[in-house]
């Protein structure tokens, strides 16, 4: 379905502009993208529309709406914003003056607040008072479909302002509000997760977006967590510099670890094996990426986490005398193998073929500081392994680090004496 | 290396307030209270706060106060803890805390503490370690820390610590230099820095310094002047600032100045704004750049202002 609205002149009165703006939003509830467009781009858009055998819009438009994409001319932003703010402030002022208990649903005042707050938020996405007014009205209704509409508005705002703190926060408010009241929570979480991924594609290393995805983890079932792990792997492999996605995977993995520690008595061996496999696989995959993409900080930081957890999880088990299952013994035997492998990795990554190559220098720095970090964080475990301890003595690492990363010499001096 | 264009920056800050004709600045009016804090603190650090009409600012601030005791970002806007701290900080700059109904403000803040010790930003319940810092900083300035459960507040912050030594918004949130500043600041004010592994956190923080000398806020990100503040103040509070190169950082900040029209940007040659101007100047102050007032790394206020609050002189 294609439709088109628009055609006003920049000299239109602000109130008319606002009405037109709100009318377009009302008439096409499926609008899923908003953008501000310079007037010079309008001509191009109109041309393209003609190619698609559409009715041409009038000249000098303020708005452009096609295929559920909504463009607003940058020329009208200021008067439009002022009109929207004025209308919103008047409506919410009146609403609060009367008090939510007096205002009868459907008498127009509520819908005025909803209409103008939406217009305002599309122009000023972090206008907190406008988000709050919606929370006030929506929480009074307690209607699931109205809550879901809030997710749509937030998504629309995020389509052009992907870092809007309030738009993300509004989603969490909705999810907290419907938790326990709807049977589709896991489905909502799945969609939330997909939305973050979609936005992360356009807005790199978006802290607010990924923070939202991490926040979802505590609401997820174990099955959902495992699916998320599977799904995010592909994305992470394609965005190896994005620490956010790796952090998200860390949260999912920690959640699985936490679940297993709660179920210590029964099925603990089965869980331990599952976690062991999960960690092994992630370590192996991470090593592959490290060798494929030279000098990526996020990959090495991920390895710090994986290795530290691996040691904490499986090395403590070695000293657990009450545990004598064969499976656990085979795990414990892998510890020496693990450390040898890390030393090999260090060796292969720390040679700098040509000192002019920044990537290789970075790789050497990351690998050596990874090893130093690991020895510092797990000295309690390493002290039980005299064979490898020797190879990890600070001396070698210090020589290496001072060579490849002299700018942090005061850190290396402090850490290694 | 260039020098700090003090006069230009003063002119820039004074001019920003008067801009009412472009969409970007008008559509940001909801956080004018934060803007006032950034701009006025910068002027104070530059020694030029006397260019401001105190009564005008104070009366505007008081018009932003809500009956709940909290402050909005502008007149007619809903209260939020973010703007409440800025309002209190600006009043502190002018030594005007006495205009406040302290009970009312501190009740508002204390009322935002949750059962688990965390703080909501306002009545709608979003939780973030930023709000923990704000609550603790604000109550400390107003001498009313006893109104909250400090022990629980601290343990919530500690629960947001990651294996890399950093802190996030909520438990499990990714480490971020801004959040780290908030958590370290809150722990410093409450005398709880022993919860921090200083070597581990210091290591993460000093890895934020990139080749160009600037600091980023997270791994793989570009350097940005505002992190000069977040990272540097944290390093100072945990006594690990000698792990970065101060000279390189000073140079990076100075390179981000608009030496013609004043103001500082996030990176060299980008557009300037008040936010980065404040963080650039505050960062230089932490780096003991000559001619600037010293700033307190935990309260984010000039040291003489903090001394006045706690020692009455
Ligand atoms: Zn910045």
UniProtKB/TrEMBL annotation, chain A:
<keyword id="KW-0808">Transferase</keyword>
<dbReference type="GO" id="GO:0005965">
    <property type="term" value="C:protein farnesyltransferase complex"/>
</dbReference>
<dbReference type="GO" id="GO:0004662">
    <property type="term" value="F:CAAX-protein geranylgeranyltransferase activity"/>
</dbReference>
<dbReference type="GO" id="GO:0005953">
    <property type="term" value="C:CAAX-protein geranylgeranyltransferase complex"/>
</dbReference>
<keyword id="KW-0677">Repeat</keyword>
<comment type="similarity">
    <text>Belongs to the protein prenyltransferase subunit alpha family.</text>
</comment>
<dbReference type="GO" id="GO:0004660">
    <property type="term" value="F:protein farnesyltransferase activity"/>
</dbReference>
<dbReference type="Pfam" id="PF01239">
    <property type="entry name" value="PPTA"/>
</dbReference>
<protein>
    <submittedName>
        <fullName>Uncharacterized protein</fullName>
    </submittedName>
</protein>
<dbReference type="InterPro" id="IPR002088">
    <property type="entry name" value="Prenyl_trans_a"/>
</dbReference>
<keyword id="KW-0637">Prenyltransferase</keyword>
TrEMBL record, chain B:
<dbReference type="InterPro" id="IPR026873">
    <property type="entry name" value="Ptb1"/>
</dbReference>
<dbReference type="GO" id="GO:0046872">
    <property type="term" value="F:metal ion binding"/>
</dbReference>
<dbReference type="Pfam" id="PF00432">
    <property type="entry name" value="Prenyltrans"/>
</dbReference>
<feature type="domain" description="Prenyltransferase alpha-alpha toroid">
    <location>
        <begin position="4"/>
        <end position="300"/>
    </location>
</feature>
<comment type="similarity">
    <text>Belongs to the protein prenyltransferase subunit beta family.</text>
</comment>
<keyword id="KW-0637">Prenyltransferase</keyword>
<keyword id="KW-0808">Transferase</keyword>
<dbReference type="GO" id="GO:0048364">
    <property type="term" value="P:root development"/>
</dbReference>
<comment type="function">
    <text>Catalyzes the transfer of a geranylgeranyl moiety from geranylgeranyl diphosphate to both cysteines of proteins with the C-terminal sequence -XXCC, -XCXC and -CCXX.</text>
</comment>
<protein>
    <recommendedName>
        <fullName>Geranylgeranyl transferase type-2 subunit beta</fullName>
        <ecNumber>2.5.1.60</ecNumber>
    </recommendedName>
</protein>
<comment type="subunit">
    <text>Heterotrimer composed of the alpha subunit RGTA, the beta subunit RGTB and REP; within this trimer, RGTA and RGTB form the catalytic component, while REP mediates peptide substrate binding.</text>
</comment>
<comment type="function">
    <text>Required for male fertility and root tip growth.</text>
</comment>
<dbReference type="InterPro" id="IPR001330">
    <property type="entry name" value="Prenyltrans"/>
</dbReference>
<keyword id="KW-0862">Zinc</keyword>
<dbReference type="GO" id="GO:0005968">
    <property type="term" value="C:Rab-protein geranylgeranyltransferase complex"/>
</dbReference>
<dbReference type="GO" id="GO:0004663">
    <property type="term" value="F:Rab geranylgeranyltransferase activity"/>
</dbReference>
<keyword id="KW-0677">Repeat</keyword>
<dbReference type="GO" id="GO:0048229">
    <property type="term" value="P:gametophyte development"/>
</dbReference>
<keyword id="KW-0479">Metal-binding</keyword>
<dbReference type="InterPro" id="IPR045089">
    <property type="entry name" value="PGGT1B-like"/>
</dbReference>
């Amino acid at each position: 379905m294609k439709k088109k609205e628009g055609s006003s002149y920049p000299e239109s009165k602000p109130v008319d502009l606002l009405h037109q703006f709100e009318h377009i939003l009302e008439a096409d509830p499926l609008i899923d993208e908003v953008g501000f467009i310079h007037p010079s781009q309008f001509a191009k858009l109109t041309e393209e529309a003609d190619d698609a055998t559409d009715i041409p819009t009038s000249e000098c438009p303020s708005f452009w709406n096609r295929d559920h994409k909504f463009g607003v001319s940058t020329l009208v932003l200021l008067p439009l914003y002022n009109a929207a703010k004025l209308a919103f402030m008047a409506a919410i002022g009146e609403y609060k003056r009367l008090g939510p208990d007096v205002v009868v649903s459907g008498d127009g005042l509520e819908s005025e607040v909803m209409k103008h707050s939406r217009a305002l938020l599309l122009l000023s996405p972090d206008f907190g008072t406008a988000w709050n007014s919606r929370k006030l009205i929506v929480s009074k209704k307690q209607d699931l479909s109205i809550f879901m509409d809030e997710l749509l508005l937030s998504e629309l705002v995020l389509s052009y302002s992907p870092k809007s703190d309030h738009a993300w926060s509004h989603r969490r408010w909705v999810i907290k509000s419907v938790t326990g009241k709807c049977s589709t929570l896991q489905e909502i979480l799945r969609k939330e997760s997909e939305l973050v991924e979609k936005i992360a594609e356009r807005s790199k290393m978006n802290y607010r977006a990924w923070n939202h995805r991490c926040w979802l983890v505590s609401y997820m079932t174990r099955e959902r967590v495992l699916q998320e792990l599977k799904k995010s792997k592909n994305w992470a492999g394609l965005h190896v510099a994005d620490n956010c996605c790796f952090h998200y995977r860390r949260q999912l993995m920690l959640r699985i670890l936490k679940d297993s520690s709660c179920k210590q008595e029964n099925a603990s061996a089965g869980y331990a094996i599952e976690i062991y496999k999960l960690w092994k696989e992630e370590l192996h995959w991470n090593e592959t990426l490290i060798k494929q993409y030279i000098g990526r900080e996020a990959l090495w930081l991920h390895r710090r986490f994986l290795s530290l957890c691996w040691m904490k999880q499986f090395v403590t088990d070695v000293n657990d005398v009450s545990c004598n299952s064969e499976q656990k013994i085979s795990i414990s035997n892998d510890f020496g193998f693990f450390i040898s492998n890390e030393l090999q990795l260090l060796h292969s990554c720390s040679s700098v073929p040509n000192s002019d190559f920044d990537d290789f220098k970075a790789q050497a720095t990351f690998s050596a500081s990874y090893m130093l970090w690991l020895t510092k964080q797990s000295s309690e475990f390493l002290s039980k392994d005299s064979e490898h301890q020797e190879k990890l003595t600070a001396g070698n690492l210090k020589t290496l680090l001072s060579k490849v990363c002299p700018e942090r010499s005061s850190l290396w001096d402090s850490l290694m004496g | 290396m260039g020098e700090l264009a003090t006069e230009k920056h003063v002119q820039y800050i004074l001019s920003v307030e008067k801009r009412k004709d472009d969409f970007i600045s008008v559509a940001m009016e909801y956080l004018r209270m934060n803007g006032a804090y950034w701009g006025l603190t910068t002027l104070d650090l530059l020694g030029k706060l006397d260019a401001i009409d105190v009564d005008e600012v104070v009366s505007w601030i008081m018009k932003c106060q809500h009956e709940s005791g909290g402050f909005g970002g502008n007149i007619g806007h809903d209260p939020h803890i973010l703007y409440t701290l800025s309002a209190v900080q600006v009043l502190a700059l002018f030594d005007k805390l006495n205009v406040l109904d302290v009970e009312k403000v501190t009740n508002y803040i204390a009322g935002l503490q949750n059962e688990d010790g965390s703080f909501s930003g306002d009545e709608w319940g979003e939780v973030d370690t930023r709000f923990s810092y704000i609550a603790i900083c604000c109550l400390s300035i107003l001498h009313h820390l006893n109104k909250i459960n400090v022990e629980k507040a601290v343990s919530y912050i500690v629960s947001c610590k990651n294996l890399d030594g950093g802190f996030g918004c909520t438990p499990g949130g990714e480490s971020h230099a801004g959040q780290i500043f908030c958590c370290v600041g809150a722990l410093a004010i409450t005398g709880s820095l022993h919860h921090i592994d200083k070597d581990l956190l210091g290591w993460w923080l000093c890895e934020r310094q990139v080749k160009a000398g600037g600091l980023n806020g997270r791994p793989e990100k570009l350097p940005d002047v505002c992190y000069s503040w977040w990272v540097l103040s944290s390093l100072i509070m945990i006594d690990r600032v000698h792990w970065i190169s101060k000279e390189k950082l000073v140079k990076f900040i100075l390179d981000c100045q608009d030496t013609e029209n004043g103001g500082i940007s996030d990176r060299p040659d980008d557009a300037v704004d008040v936010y980065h101007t404040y963080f650039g100047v505050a960062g230089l102050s932490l780096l003991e750049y000559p001619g600037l007032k010293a700033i307190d790394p935990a309260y984010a206020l000039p040291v003489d202002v903090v001394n006045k609050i706690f020692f009455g002189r």
